[in-house]
Amino acid sequence: MSDPFTFLADAPLGTRVVVRTRIPGGYTDALGFLRERSAASVSVETKRGLVTLAMQDVVAAKLVPPAPPPRLRRG
Questions:
Q1: Contact (CB, 8 A) for 45 and 61
Q2: What are the backbone dihedrals phi and psi of residue 63, each rounded to the nearest 5 degrees, phi first?
Q3: C-alpha triplet 71, 73, 63: angle, nearest 5°
Q4: Can you say whether residue 59 is alpha, beta or left, with left for phi > 0 and alpha for psi between -120 and 50 degrees?
Q5: What residue stretches are annotated with the Histone acetyltransferase Rv0428c-like SH3 domain (predicted)?
Q6: CATH class, range 4-63
Q7: pLDDT digits (tens, 9 = 90+) for 49-70
Q8: In the chain, pLDDT over 90 holds for what percent of residues?
Q9: Could you read off the pLDDT of 32-46 as tens digits, one per residue?
């Protein structure tokens, strides 16, 4: 498996990803679509909006399969 920096550099924009970053006191994940990248940062479009993450804080990243379709309501 490749390191997170190689994965993020090679993944096509629009790929659904999860990126784990280091924050004070622990880690956090951004799940969504890869929208932008540079040597210094990546941007992931999550359900809550566009999140820009510093590459120096990235500790892991991987491809995520498409979200399952919404469940049908009963009744």
A1: no
A2: -70, 140
A3: 15
A4: alpha
A5: 12-62
A6: mainly beta
A7: 999 999 999 999 999 999 888 8
A8: 85
A9: 999 999 999 999 999
Smallest CA-to-CA distance from 57 within 23, 31, 32 is with 23
Across the range 13-24, mean pLDDT stands at: 97
- Helix H, strand E, coil C: the string for the chain is CCCHHHHHHHCCCCCEEEEEEEECCEEEEEEEEEEEECCCEEEEEECCEEEEEEHHHEEEEEECCCCCCCCCCCC
Token couple for 24? 């004070």
Q: How far apart are CA 24 and CA 16, in angstroms?
A: 26
**Distance separating alpha carbons of residues 74 and 57, to the nearest angstrom:** 43
Residue 69's alpha-carbon distances to 48, 65, 74, in angstroms, are 19, 12, 15
